[in-house]
Prior knowledge:
- 2 copies of one chain form a homodimer.
- By secondary structure, chain A is α/β, with parallel strands linked by helices.
- Chain A has one domain: TIM Barrel, CATH 3.20.20.70.
- Chain A is built from 13 helices and 10 strands.
- In chain A, helix 3 runs parallel beside helix 5 (71-84).
- The two termini of chain A are 31 Å apart.
- At the A-B interface, helix 4, helix 6, helix 7, helix 8 and strand 6 of A face helix 4, helix 6, helix 7, helix 8 and strand 6 of B.
Amino acid sequence: MNFIAAIQQRWVSADTMVCVGLDPYPERFPSHLKNHPDGIFEFNKAIIDATQDLVCCYKPQFAHFAALDALDSLKRTIAYIKNTYPDVPVILDSKRGDIGSTASMYAKEAFDIYQADAVTVNPYMGIDTIAPFTHYQDKGVIVLCRTSNPGAAELQNQRIDQTPLYQVVAGLAADQWNDAGNILLVVGATADEEMRQIRALTGDMPFLVPGIGAQGGDLAAVIAAGMDSTGNGLIINSSRAILYASEGADFAQAARQETELLVQACRQEQRRILANR
Amino acid sequence: MNFIAAIQQRWVSADTMVCVGLDPYPERFPSHLKNHPDGIFEFNKAIIDATQDLVCCYKPQFAHFAALDALDSLKRTIAYIKNTYPDVPVILDSKRGDIGSTASMYAKEAFDIYQADAVTVNPYMGIDTIAPFTHYQDKGVIVLCRTSNPGAAELQNQRIDQTPLYQVVAGLAADQWNDAGNILLVVGATADEEMRQIRALTGDMPFLVPGIGAQGGDLAAVIAAGMDSTGNGLIINSSRAILYASEGADFAQAARQETELLVQACRQEQRRILANR
């Protein structure tokens, strides 16, 4: 099954649009894992076991492992999810982008070495940086469109004639780059007005939505802006707010509670909007 | 010494603007290294030993190591250069870009884990993706501006009012992002007209120039367009044309010859242009 179909199935079968982002900060681990020789993997495993029925996917973030020289833990975390919970897809969040021959190497990195089901990519270098990823037709290719960070607008909201750059990217992604039908977009939760416009341009293309929680995005506004025609359409990521809900021995249980709250809040907004459609 | 000063010193002391890009393709290695247990490192070491007096820096490309699950070879290659030829700086070409907290992790990856002297970064997400890198004041931060690939113009030449996006990026990099004076730009050799305009906007900011050789850039046009006020200003990268000049046992010697030809061609153009200034 391809990535988008797997996500759509989770939206329905598990009734959740929540994605848990796996960003290890060992200084925030409970004390028994802080100096554990395999602490990063054990932390992730506990979070995954505690939340797997509540998520539509997981999203490990590459840099958080790379900065700790812990890429082996990244690989084993993804393998653990795929072996133990094969219905739950994994996004490798690494925001790659390079000339075609090099982009092919990054596609191998994501899909062959780390066995991810999807990867985030940066569109600044154009189509030849995207095509080597979309060539893997069963994989998801999640193109940065309008990101959630404070500086996002600096380039992304610059206007080409009347059209902001993020809409140019959304248009290219929907109309020109998507021959294999496996592109998704990153649209930040801090930009719900932009999200509404991107939804209008892209039909039911799924969006990966960072920026809920620590970054301050408004969940109700996001769901209202981004919901697709089927009542789903979003992969709503939360990382730190879930992972570090407790820094004590009960961290996994606290992560589950926090995830459940987010899932319930999403469902409530979805039901409310669908009832008014 | 900071990265830009180290490059400027190499331009003068070694009289070379050439950078050798380290992109391992084991299938193109000579037969004795193809199945060698440490073939990637041994190949790089031989190339480095054969060319170190002819280069202003080296540029290992991250994806080529990551796709081979050979990041340990990347780390050891950089360590080898720094220990053996400490005057020759190293650019980690990984084109990173993410929200601020994650960009900090990528800066750690490049500068702490891999011990690179400079790193390439992608500007699509704006200033908060750049600042965590420039915070390392002795390091070089090389921002993608106008890249060398065929699809580069798709976004980078889109016009904001009358100004193409790559010039917006060049202006931000020169005027707003560069408090620490450690930013450089990527300007592809396949875009010499754009390079001329970027040079006009950025004073003597150094450019990393990919696209000579396999990608087809014109050396004379590039040097004419990009030379700075001192007669240098460019880091002219060549990877495959040098690394695989011979795929036989004489590969290192052939790489040296190819590098020497490029160095001499650069010097000739520099002299010619300076004589006519």
